[in-house]
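Notebook entry, structure prediction.
Reason for the run: the old model in the group folder had no record of what sequence produced it. Starting over properly, with the input documented here first.
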Amino acid sequence: ELLGKSDNAWINPPFYCDYGKNIEVGKNFFGNYNLTILDVGKVRIGDYCQVAPNVSIYTAGHPVHPAARNTMYEYGIDVTIGNNVWIGGNVVICPGVTIGDNAVIGAGSVVTRDIPAWSVAAGNPCKVIRKITEDDRDKYYRGV
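New structure, fully documented this time:
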């Protein structure tokens, strides 16, 4: 069961996945509507992650050559998302990507490569814009 192992996880419907059994979410996970996870490979999402609407996480791949692709062969490459990650709306996360702890992925990004921890990243392809620092704590939400 997808959320059976998680503590206080929530996904707003509609939600789409291939199998569900290859998805692990941590405690206090929140997925907004239209979350799509193609979980041929494993998808591991850490604790306290927030996923905005219309996010797609892909682990599935197919051969490039048409003769091989036409056999309907499919393989999976795992995706790992660390703890305290915020993924903005309409983001696509491609197979094999690891997103480090405490990262923020900007809306509309296509994540094709690993994103290090404590980074703000955005774009197509997604690139690190800057590091997150302690100065950000007071800049955006005073008193926390």
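Summary: Helices lie at 66-69, 135-140.
The old model has been moved to the deprecated folder.
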